[in-house]
Design brief:
The complex is a heterodimer.
Chain A (H helix, E strand, L loop, with lengths): L8 H29 L11 H33 L6 H23 L13 H23 L8 H20 L2 E5 L2 E4 L3 H20 L1 H15 L6 H14 L15 H13 L1 H13 L7 H4 L1 H23 L2 H7 L4 H30 L6 H34 L11 H6 L2 H31 L5 H9 L2
Antiparallel strand pairs in A: 1-2
Chain B lengths: L5 H21 L20 H12 L14 H7 L34 H9 L1 H4 L18 H11 L5 H5 L6 H11 L6 H5 L18 H11 L1 H4 L18 H10 L14 H16 L1
Classes of the chains: A mainly alpha, B mainly alpha.
Chain lengths: 472, 287
């Protein structure tokens, strides 16, 4: 079959912008971690912790994760469908509108325009921009799939489509609000209802933005990197359908012990525990795909990122359900354990897979060999060590904090005042700063390696490139 | 079959997503924030409080402070009565938060006098040593805009009087956020009902025991000095140099506080420590 003329320019652009916003997210992350230990580093009104923290999360989720998702999806959809994108113009529009949206988001958050809903802080005009962006993206992907030249739709395409509809539903429902001025609105829901709707969004955004897309990438990049197909197609089917069915029941596990009705909390707890199965379905599928290929962990830097990434996914999806159990939640919720859990997911799972996917893409869309594999290995170790310091220190901090909060004297009075528990956190918060800086250095090595690849990397032989690309 | 039909896959995926959504997110609207949840004493925010709430949102206070107290022993001891659904019916959006870098604020209203909040917002470390909260004294420089606040009240459908709007003139953002903090958790008369009566004869186990004075002083510095001064000279609270009363009465005051004057109860720190503070205070007052 004649090789289709794929659109690689758009993939290059999204890689660049995804990385730029990722760098912003990590830099702001290091700054807010410093603000927690040194309050004098807050510069009101624009640069206080309260305003920078949402900027950190938004840049991370919507700039870095979604930016990389766009790059990967636009690349994968063309290969998996053996056809060029449905519309190049729409893709170009998507790129510029993506950056316009992220820039608007960053500026408005610094100005204090926020709805205060975690991971959905953007005020209504920016919400509308996000919706337009998502519609443009969705149309292009779905139309490309519809006019594909490959009968079967590979696993990655299922996850892509599920995340497209999932994000659309979640974002619109949670974003419903009544505007009072250009940048101020009140939620359409009140109190307990608002909380329940919001955490239905908050948890499932993790599914549809930070789980399904990296899984789509993993299922594509892993077999491409190892040269061996995914272990079980049937296992992928079961894991896929049970994941997208079960995830949506679990949002209220963020609201255990709150005034949300008990039966919702119980359902959320039960489904969270059951969710281990589909999550680990993908983990095992990944591990079993490595049968006879484990030596590649040593020889192939891509495999290292992918397998450690999916391992963090496995740990994350064991820890998550554990935290969703009432007794454990009573102890650990609201402590520093929570950011530790989140960052194992974002730094360990999402970013590892994103780094691997970008390493896979760049040589292909630029037609050049990676500049330096040793640097890629250095990058791997820096982000792994940085992430481990970050999360382990905050796990310890969280357990210590929870222990102090719940400690009582023999007469039933509280053993510690709140401030006595807070000052104990400082050493761990310093450790977080340190871990964050190591992670940041790792990312700078990554960026340097990619820049050198595009400038000085050896040009891949055209025939070899075609052979790689021809494999579906 | 669905692996070959993208439209079918989209329909099936949407259906799979909607099942859990309907059960756990849409159905609850039939039971939550209905009349069964209502609490008669919970009232909407007045214009000043609502504006304070919007400032609280703008500054992202919810990133560090939660506003839900769970029905767990130590939380109720630390913060007060646990949160009820009916207390939040006027909250758009909810502000329950997810992380306690600072303490929960669900029942902060009425715990301290206004003066404490002004000083604390201006310089948190002056009141709470080693706090990592940023300074918010700059809120005083921003005057409120009565017209935009009136518009917000109209959109929310909250009742207000023209006098309340007029009174906003000349007020600043600090006034608003303090008013909001003082409103929090006051929708139910929980302080009254939660008050524990100390029954039986109170006897100071450390009567004339000078060895606990250091411990008493440390406790005073931690819990009382911000309001009553390091040398008991008073500032936000009254000076304490004249405490001519039986030990048992002083214990009662520390135990229950004076909620109407903004002195919080210290029952949660335990009787042993309260008696040590009594000893310290009585001893200092003598000099």
């Amino acid at each position: 079959m004649e090789k289709p003329n794929y659109n690689t320019d758009i993939v290059r652009s999204f890689i660049n912008w995804g990385i730029i916003w990722g760098l912003v997210a990590i830099l702001v992350g290091v700054i807010v971690s410093l603000q927690m230990v040194e309050p004098a580093l807050n510069f009101p009104p624009y640069l206080t912790f309260g305003r920078l923290r949402p900027l950190h999360t938004n840049a991370g989720i919507y700039g870095w994760a979604v930016g990389t998702t766009f790059a990967l999806f636009l690349y994968m959809v063309q290969r998996l469908c053996k056809t060029r994108l449905w519309s190049d113009k729409l893709a170009r529009f998507q790129l510029w509108f993506f950056n316009a949206t992220i820039i608007t988001a960053a500026i408005t958050l610094l100005l204090g325009y926020t709805t205060s809903k975690e991971y959905h802080e953007l005020e209504w005009p920016v919400d509308i921009m996000v919706v337009i962006l998502w519609v443009a993206f969705a149309i292009n992907i779905i139309m490309t799939i519809i006019k594909r030249r490959e009968e079967q739709m590979y696993i990655s395409l299922w996850y892509m489509m599920a995340s497209i509809v999932g994000v659309a539903i979640l974002y619109i429902v949670d974003g419903a609000e009544v505007p009072v001025s250009l940048f101020k609105s009140y939620s359409a829901y009140a109190g307990t209802n608002d909380a329940n709707v919001h955490w239905w969004f908050g948890h499932n955004a993790v599914a549809m933005v930070l789980t399904a897309p990296p899984l789509a990438m993993f299922y594509y990049v892993l077999p491409k990197s190892t040269g061996v197909p995914i272990y079980s197609h049937r296992m992928s089917i079961i894991a896929f359908w049970s994941l997208i069915f079960m995830y949506l029941w679990t949002g209220a596990h963020h609201l255990l012990w709150t005034p949300v009705p008990d039966w919702i909390q119980t359902l959320a707890m039960a489904f969270s525990v059951m969710l281990i199965a589909p999550s680990w379905g993908s983990v095992f599928n990944g591990y079993l795909s490595m049968r006879g290929q484990w030596h590649q962990m040593r020889e192939n830097y891509l495999v290292k990122f992918l397998i450690i990434g999916i391992t963090f996914y496995g740990l994350q999806t064991l820890q998550g359900p554990m935290q969703a159990i009432r007794s454990f939640s009573a102890f650990i919720h609201y402590t520093d354990w929570v950011p530790a859990h989140i960052h194992m997911g974002t730094m360990g799972w999402v970013s590892m897979i994103a780094f691997a996917s970008i390493y896979y893409l760049v040589p292909r869309v630029y037609g050049r060999e990676l500049y330096s594999v040793p640097l890629a290995n250095l990058h791997f170790w820096l982000i792994l060590i940085g992430q481990l310091i970050w999360t382990i220190s905050l796990w310890i901090a969280g357990v210590l904090q929870a222990g102090m909060w719940t400690a009582t004297n023999s007469d039933g009075s509280l053993a510690y005042s709140f401030m006595e528990t807070m000052v104990e956190m400082y050493p761990y918060w310093w450790a977080r700063v340190f871990g964050g800086i190591i992670f940041l250095i790792g990312v700078l090595v990554f960026i340097y390696n990619l820049v050198m690849t595009t400038r000085r990397g050896e040009i891949s032989p055209a025939s070899e490139r075609a052979a790689v690309e021809g494999r579906a | 079959m669905w692996e070959r039909k993208p439209v079918l896959l989209l329909v099936l995926a949407t259906a799979a997503i909607m099942v859990g959504t309907i059960v756990t997110m849409i159905l609850p609207f039939a039971w939550v924030n209905t009349d069964a949840d209502r609490i008669a004493t919970v009232t909407p925010y007045n214009p000043l409080e609502q504006e304070g709430r919007d400032i609280y949102i703008r500054e992202g206070c919810n990133n560090c402070h939660t506003q839900t107290i769970r029905p767990l022993v130590t939380e109720v001891l630390r913060y007060g009565d646990y949160s009820k659904s009916g207390e939040f019916v006027y909250d758009r959006p909810f502000l329950w938060g997810s992380k306690r870098t600072g303490p929960d604020l669900a029942r902060i209203g009425g715990k301290y006098p206004d003066a404490w909040h002004y000083k604390h917002m201006e310089s948190p470390r002056a009141m709470v040593p080693r706090s990592n909260m940023p300074d918010y004294g700059w809120l005083k420089n921003n005057l409120l805009d009565p017209q935009s606040i009136r518009h917000k009240m109209d959109v929310l459908g909250f009742p207000y009087k023209q006098a309340e709007i007029d009174a906003l003139k000349g007020k600043n953002e600090m006034d608003a956020i303090v008013a909001y903090l003082q409103k929090l958790g006051t929708g139910i008369p929980w302080r009254k009902t939660a008050e524990t009566l100390v029954v039986g004869e109170l006897h100071n186990p450390y009567q004339d025991d000078l060895t606990v004075l250091d411990a008493g002083k440390a406790l005073y510095m931690q819990h009382c000095a911000a309001c009553h001064g390091e040398k008991l000279q008073g500032e936000i609270g009254p000076e304490l140099t004249d405490l001519d009363m039986p030990d048992a009465d002083l214990y009662q005051i520390l135990f229950n506080g004076f909620p109407e004057d903004g002195m919080p109860p210290f029952s949660a720190i335990g009787s042993d420590r309260l008696w040590k503070m009594v000893n310290f205070l009585k001893n200092e007052a003598k000099h």
